[in-house]
Automatic annotation (TrEMBL):
CDD domains reported in the protein's UniProt record: PTP-MTMR12
GO BP terms in the entry: phosphatidylinositol dephosphorylation
Main location: cytoplasm
Subunit structure: Heterodimer with lipid phosphatase MTM1. Heterodimer with lipid phosphatase MTMR2.
Family statement drawn from the similarity comment of this UniProt entry: Belongs to the protein-tyrosine phosphatase family. Non-receptor class myotubularin subfamily.
Protein name (Swiss-Prot/TrEMBL): Myotubularin-related protein 12
Gene3D superfamilies the UniProt entry points to: Pleckstrin-homology domain (PH domain)/Phosphotyrosine-binding domain (PTB) (2.30.29.30)
Keyword Cytoplasm among record annotations: yes
Domain Myotubularin phosphatase residues, every copy: 194-632
Any one Gene Ontology cellular component term annotated for this protein: membrane
Domain of life: Eukaryota
């Protein structure tokens, strides 16, 4: 029998948007904190949550609860679960909570055999294993749970995490409805949402693109195209009626303008047609469109067809499916058994190579815009996947504003949210089509991490910021990553249409970080190494140009040379044929000339000192592309570095900065010299900093795993685990001598 939870709105000390739930059937009548509107669906008591350790069977007893928002383990002994040292706490998702959208795979153990669980079960497992999309692994022993409760909780979890859903049945709407009168936005959040014409005009003015491009409102009310936002930017010479011709397809849409006047554009393909008459009409239309943006020698356009000359979504999906298995570790034995094959498994996944190819493509486009002063037109079937990825990376490399936190969030709003990236389908939030689930946005964040890792002072945000942003993909109280388009969002929250008389829902945005983290926790999202742009007075401004001067002086030739052998005629044909769904074998951007220009541009930039407020290029050689350790290894105790890691170093810098700031405040105080001031207290996040590990801030010191001396698949044959651990200790003692 499903049991209900009584939601006590307005409970004392409950955070905004949350309330306490009472569990009537629990004899202890405990209270637990849940988001407003959350309803408990099923539960099981006397469940043992295992720690990730072999053969010991250690764990904590408690209740396993499934709600319409998450799966939660509520321990009987709160002190064993609520570790005060885990100080970087998410206020929405606890350490033992899994949102329904975060569940990746569910396994059951039957007679020591692990099997995938789905659909209706004839037999129920004695052990439940849940693999999460944020790469956590939970194991629950059900041997001591009542049979009826086992059936209820296992069936409930399988159904509510795997069954296809309707959009309006997502918890996002339940939460927004229940918290309608309690939603408060952060006044410090200055992210540009690009949902008004004013926002686009501001961006045009910021990038000096308003001389050649204009913001249009032809799609207001989504009458022209449901795929496009209500407002966007097109070339000034383009008549607005052309936008309506093929419902926004085949129209060059502006992304960003460079300081030298070149621009980055994107275009979606026209519908494929078999009729020759319609094909001729489409060809003539595209030819006229192309002439409005390609006017040599003043305006030269380089096309990049991402649909036929770059990665496929299938490649990305396959690579990540292999890659994530390296980190979904059930126990220590599995970790050490695969350790010796780490490099071969990593290489065979091809994930790092895909990251390298994305960064290389972005550098190639940057070279065209920066060194050759060419406009670049990105082509894709719907211009909502790889176009979002590459255009965002190019702007991140070329525009220092995008490397600030507000600028980065505004970039995601512009290129991904308003750009029509299908988050609902690509994250498979509705569980309707597994083939549509492709981690394109996660690939983008991984590419961004490579830049942050290689050039830390250039970014105002940290890798921890990127990690929690990736986690936020699966938290259904934020609307940012739960729609396929602005039209879909506006339609379902009541902002469009006249049939709804109720007040439109006010959905939360993920950019309000105060919803998830306390102010002290948010300090770990800001990079203390960030080099802010110096503010110059009027005298210093004279004679200075805020351009990428180092790159402008590159000895590149033929940047404005006249076309040879019908080069741009070939470009026009290339554009038309690909937009009409026909591929050609000879691709422009694989030519030797482009490769030579790329290598010269790339080597020249890396041979000079880095200007953190200018152009920024990553290293893309094999060893330079690394695994995003914090995101992928943070839940694996065996992979931790005791007392070290990049984030531990960052925390020390934060601690020093807090001390310096405290001392400065004391110096500035007047009439305080005779009285000894109390010593400033270090921020709570940084206490016990000597006990940090590379898992920080998501965990402090974890148990020390007894790894084998020879980590091979047959290591157990060499002796007992305790003996191996003893040998390792003896080896470490010898090393300390």
């Amino acid at each position: 029998m499903l049991w209900k939870a009584t939601v006590l709105l307005g409970s004392v000390e409950a955070p905004l948007g949350f309330a306490y739930c009472v569990f009537p059937e629990n004899s202890k009548e405990d209270f637990f904190l849940f988001p407003t509107g959350e309803q408990v669906l099923c539960e099981a008591s006397t469940v043992l949550k295992y720690v990730q350790e072999d053969s010991s069977q250690h764990g904590v007893y408690g209740r396993l609860v499934c709600t319409d928002f998450k799966i939660a383990f509520l321990g009987d002994d709160e002190s064993a679960l609520d570790n005060d040292e885990t100080q970087f706490k998410n206020k929405v998702i606890g350490e033992n909570d899994i949102t329904l959208h975060c569940v990746d795979q569910i396994y059951g153990v039957f007679d020591e055999k692990k099997k995938t669980l789905f659909g209706q079960l004839k037999k129920y497992p004695e052990k439940l294993i849940i693999h999460c999309k944020d790469l956590r692994v939970f194991q629950f022993c059900l041997r001591y749970t009542k049979e009826e409760e086992v059936k209820r909780i296992v069936s409930g979890i399988i159904h509510h995490t795997q069954a296809p859903k309707l959009l309006k049945r997502l918890f996002l709407f339940s939460y927004a409805t229940a918290a309608q009168n309690n939603t408060v936005t952060d006044p410090k959040n200055h992210t540009v949402m690009f949902d008004t014409l004013k926002d686009w005009c501001w961006e045009l003015e910021r990038t000096k693109g308003n001389m050649k491009y204009k913001a249009v409102s032809v799609n207001e009310g989504y009458e022209v195209c449901e795929r496009l936002p209500a407002y966007f930017v097109v070339p000034t010479p383009l008549p607005e009626e052309n936008v309506q011709r093929f419902q926004g397809h085949g129209i060059p849409i502006w992304c960003w303008s460079c300081h030298n006047g070149s621009a980055l554009l994107k275009m979606s393909a026209l519908p494929k047609e078999q009729d020759d008459g319609i094909l001729q009409i489409q060809k003539g239309f595209l030819d006229r469109i192309y002439k409005t943006i390609h006017r040599p020698p003043y305006e030269i356009v380089k096309t990049e067809d991402l649909s036929s000359n770059f990665l496929s979504l299938q490649e990305i999906q396959t690579a990540y499916s292999k890659f994530k298995q390296l980190f979904l570790i059930d126990n220590s034995t599995e970790f050490w058994d695969t350790d010796i094959k780490w490099f071969s498994l990593l290489e065979s996944s091809s994930w790092l190579d895909i990251i390298r190819r994305c960064l290389k493509k972005a550098i190639e486009i940057t070279e065209c815009m920066e060194a050759q002063n060419m406009n670049v037109l990105l082509l894709e079937e719907n211009a909502s996947d790889l176009c979002c990825l590459i255009s965002s990376l190019v702007q991140l490399m070329m525009d220092p504003h995008c490397r600030t936190r507000i600028g980065f969030q505004s970039l995601i709003q512009k290129e991904w949210v308003m750009g029509g990236h299908c988050f609902l389908d690509r994250c498979n939030h509705l569980r309707q089509n597994d083939k549509e689930e492709v981690p394109v946005f996660l690939l983008f964040l991984d590419c961004v991490w490579q830049l942050v890792h290689q050039h830390p002072p250039a970014f105002e945000f940290t890798e921890t910021y990127l990690t929690v942003l990736s986690d936020s993909l699966y938290i259904p109280i934020f609307s940012t990553f739960f729609f396929n388009s602005p039209h879909q969002k506006d339609t379902n929250v009541g902002r469009e249409g006249h049939e709804t008389q109720s007040k439109p829902l006010n959905l939360l945005t993920v950019w309000d970080w105060s919803v998830q983290f306390e102010p002290k926790a948010q300090t770990l999202l800001k990079n203390p190494l960030y080099v802010e742009k110096p503010k110059l007075d009027k005298g210093q401004r004279k004679g200075m140009r805020f351009k990428h001067q180092r790159q402008l002086s590159l000895p590149l030739t033929q940047s404005k040379s006249s076309p040879k052998r019908g080069f741009f005629r070939e470009e026009t044909d290339h554009l038309i044929k690909n937009l009409l769904g026909k591929r050609i074998s000879k691709l422009i951007n694989s030519s030797d000339e482009l490769q030579d220009n790329f290598r010269e541009f790339y080597d020249s930039w890396h041979s000079k000192p880095t200007d953190y407020h200018g152009l920024l290029l990553p290293h893309i050689e094999g060893p330079e592309i690394k695994v995003w350790a914090q995101r992928y290894l943070r839940w694996i105790p065996e992979a931790q570095i005791l007392g070290g890691g990049q984030v531990a170093t960052m925390s020390k810098l934060l601690e020093m900065m807090e001390e310096v700031q405290s001392l400065q405040e004391k110096i500035d105080e007047k009439h305080h010299s005779q009285q000894e001031a109390p010593q400033a207290e270090a921020p709570c996040l940084l206490r016990n900093s000597a006990r940090l590990s590379s898992l920080f801030p998501f965990a402090l010191l974890q148990r020390h795993s007894s790894k084998p001396v020879l980590p091979t698949s047959g290591w157990k044959a060499l002796g007992d685990e305790d003996d191996l651990a003893k040998q390792e200790d003896e080896f470490m003692d010898l090393g300390d001598v």
